[in-house]
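=== RUN LOG ===
request id: a7f3
mode: sequence -> structure
chains: 1
length: 106
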Amino acid sequence: TFLDLINLKDLKISNNQLDSIDNKIFYNLSMIQSIELDGNNLIELDLSVKSGIFFNLEVFKLSKNNVFDIYPSLFLKFPNLKSLIIDSNQLKELKSFHFSNLAYLK
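=== RESULT ===
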């Protein structure tokens, strides 16, 4: 895991055929600004980690996976998100409240 990498700013785990990610890898990444998980086989993503851990996150890439649902509270954890890329998934529905907390999204 990345427990000792407390100053990590960019996490790129793209194109690795991952079908799941243990949410514990994010526990000490309070400085993280970019997470790229595109090009895997993820079906869902559990980001139920301590509050505030993603406060600095500006870029989140989840494209080219098999995600079929995004929990409404997921993006509440990303108050400073500027770029969200979730294309090429199996999403059935997105509602405006999914994005209501994303004031900086471009």
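=== NOTES ===
The CA atoms of residues 20 and 42 lie 6 Å apart.
The mean pLDDT is 87.
=== END ===
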